[in-house]
Amino acid sequence: MKKFIITLIIILSVLFVGSLIFFGATPAGRTIWNEYMYDLDKVDEIDYEKRKAVEDTCRAMISSYTADSLIYNQYKESTVTEEISWANNAKIRANQTASTYNNYILLNSYVWEDNVPSDIFMTLQYLE
């Protein structure tokens, strides 16, 4: 049993040293290593770009929703027919934005991995 352990340690050591020499000193090894590291960097870059795109889209929808909510709240109790129409149209737009946003968050919540930025809401409420 003791010989087996010693043999195993020697084999693992030779493989380790051989790998270090291959990946560190030979052109073929450096090429393989550099391609592997490039692929890792590319994945990180794509993840960052995806996260930025999702956050920018969320912020744009929140801004649109907020603007329509303010218009609705300003004119919802008006007695002027035109202003009531503005309020109703703003309510429809805000609710459409909320619906789109909530679905978008549902589909893209994996981007943050439970680390959602403080200015991104998990849902937008529908206006009543």
Description of the molecule:
With 128 residues, the protein is mostly helical. The chain has one domain (2-111). The protein contains 3 helices and no strands. It has helices spanning 2-25, 27-75, 81-108. The termini are far apart.
Summed up, the helix count is 3
Average pLDDT works out at 87
Low-confidence stretches: none
- Rg, Å, rounded: 29 Å
Helicity range of the residues? over 70%
SSE topology sketch:
Blueprint: H1 2-25, H2 27-75, H3 81-108
Descriptors:
128 residues, mainly alpha
Quick take:
This protein is mostly helical. The chain is 79% helix and 0% strand.
